[in-house]
Amino acid sequence: MSEQKKSITVALDIMGADVPPDSIMTGGIQAAAECGDELQVTFVGKQEVISNFLDKQKNVPSNISVEYAAHAVAMSDNPTEGIRKKNSSIAVGLGMQKRKEADAFVSAGNTGAVMASAIMVLGRIEGISRPAIATQFPSRSGRPTLVLDVGANVDCKPMHLFQFGLMGSVFASLMTGRTSPRIGLLSIGEERSKGNEQVMQTRELFEKSGLNFIGNVEGRDILSGRADVVSTDGFVGNVLLKFTESIEGFLTKSLKRQIETNIFSRVGAGLMTPFLRRLRNAFDYSEYGGAPLLGINGVCIICHGTSSPKAIKNAVIVAARMVKHRIGENIRQEMAILNNSNNNEQDDKSQNGRDRFVRSISSDDEL
Amino acid sequence: MSEQKKSITVALDIMGADVPPDSIMTGGIQAAAECGDELQVTFVGKQEVISNFLDKQKNVPSNISVEYAAHAVAMSDNPTEGIRKKNSSIAVGLGMQKRKEADAFVSAGNTGAVMASAIMVLGRIEGISRPAIATQFPSRSGRPTLVLDVGANVDCKPMHLFQFGLMGSVFASLMTGRTSPRIGLLSIGEERSKGNEQVMQTRELFEKSGLNFIGNVEGRDILSGRADVVSTDGFVGNVLLKFTESIEGFLTKSLKRQIETNIFSRVGAGLMTPFLRRLRNAFDYSEYGGAPLLGINGVCIICHGTSSPKAIKNAVIVAARMVKHRIGENIRQEMAILNNSNNNEQDDKSQNGRDRFVRSISSDDEL
């Protein structure tokens, strides 16, 4: 490590999840151990909870630090109540980022409260009307499909859907190294004439943007991997996300019923256990390390309330990579290029060329 | 069979599917053979196609008849073009029902054209603003969840969503024998405060209806079986339906990748084949025999373009059962009761009691 290289600090909310704080902290320690000095993980939560946990550890990596918060937002709190809790782990963790004491915030707590607080404390990127939650779905190609929004905005205007696609494209380009990610607009048919009013108007915005817009995609195209980024409103996205999360339980239940009725498949089931586990994991979005909230001035990743330590570890590492790739700054630049291009439609379209993100990546080495 | 008992005639469109007409007719023959004289199946399509098929059959059941149609609507036709084809198998089959020469129509052809033609030719049930396509999803409970609308109406008002729930409730009650089916309204959280504008207004309509409304349900509740009927707009429903249909391909692809990498799971995979087939079938809506279009004056079932003979057989049998249970008449009565109840809110609520459909079932014996 060169001395010039500043480490990235991720504030990790250890409170308010469905799993115990110890499980969250275990994930944080795994991330710290895996990344070394490049990463600083700060546990944010109640003093006694953190101390009890750390006292039990044989080795605490030197890149773990702590920041105490007197309160926690409960899963049952509504977002407004959540925001009002001044010294909650959410408020303290985001406050660190606001004061530049941290670069990112990761929480497995109350989604609505985290989202609302992040937008309030960190603010929106200039030009972005509605920050959105992005989630990676598995696909047949083996490379995930990024779907957004999955719950931040239920009633969307065409401009919002367009901006979701743009933000997703920046994220997919920088984080997964895809040049010119294919953006699809979720609808009920590929034809221009199909879809609701919202979709038809959004299509026009994409078509004149210069982004790599592949047109309408359908429900089946998410798992097929036909698009890298799928734009939809938070209502449809959230219904799809929760439906997808329930597939695991459905498969398990169907398997049990099958095993009970057939001795041959009982033998098969034993041999197939690793496969089924992997299959179920494919439908579990915590494997991808949580869902980034895109469009804010900062980095915030919202994890599932039942996140495993591995999911927390992944989320912390993804958060640090988002900082490194300056996702927010790139989204801001992309918005500016598009606005500029719209104002000067005669200008050379190459301004909207494929490789425009590459120049702005701060470093090539992966965290 | 008593002589008084009139058989039920199902007009089966043999044209315009993705599978060949012979495959559709094979399903029709299976239905005719299974049901005997209670059912009459009429093949509707091009003369030479039907003759060629029937000439090859060793035994054609006596309850198979034919009705020739000079044209076919292609999958690629838009619904407006489809409606204009006067002597298409869709127009001829629905015309038979209009003239009371048939009681039901089943087609695996162009969904949009079948839907639009059925509404135009047969008309809507009095009081129903928007007919809807209903589809059965599998559930952990083993009993399917009926979701509607899955594509007929992309932009819906609260009254439409309410009527979808009502129609689904009548269908589930009569066709699956559930007393007082639980109706859920698809949203992004169970709480009253969650959902979009449309959902919040629809909730009020359900709450004062006297139907067995269980409140908002989420994406995960479809496979969990928490509701018998789930109401949503045709945009969300269609995205979900197509997403669900793609799960089979995703599972197969994931299985293949797993088998290629692991000898133990290769053995397991062989033993698990029947299970996986069943699992995939669970996600294939053709197993339920197609999707009824509810809210029209008549019976119309729309099948998947790639329907197997078994799916067609099931669809024909379900169509005949819908005729027997007088689904349309029961939806009309239910609408009248609700309108009456809304006009006389002081009236005894028992008018809206649980068992109101039972009296109107024409017969208890199952087709």
Descriptive notes:
The structure is a homodimer of 367-residue chains. With 367 residues, the first copy, chain A, is an alpha/beta fold. Helix content of chain A is 46%, strand content 14%. Chain A is built from twelve helices and eleven strands. Chain A has helices spanning 21-35, 47-56, 79-84, 89-98, 111-122, 158-176, 197-207, 221-224, 234-261, 263-282, 309-324, 327-343; strands at residues 8-13, 39-45, 64-68, 104-107, 132-137, 145-148, 183-186, 213-217, 229-231, 291-294, 300-302. The first copy, chain A, has an eleven-stranded mixed sheet, sandwiched between helices. In chain A, helix 1 (21-35) packs across helix 11 and helix 6 (158-176) crosses helix 7. Residues 346-366 of chain A have low confidence and may be disordered.
Q: How is the topology of this model organized?
A:
Two copies of one chain form a homodimer.
Chain A: E1 8-13, H1 21-35, E2 39-45, H2 47-56, E3 64-68, H3 79-84, H4 89-98, E4 104-107, H5 111-122, E5 132-137, E6 145-148, H6 158-176, E7 183-186, H7 197-207, E8 213-217, H8 221-224, E9 229-231, H9 234-261, H10 263-282, E10 291-294, E11 300-302, H11 309-324, H12 327-343
Helix pairs in contact in A: 1-11, 4-5, 6-7, 6-12, 9-10
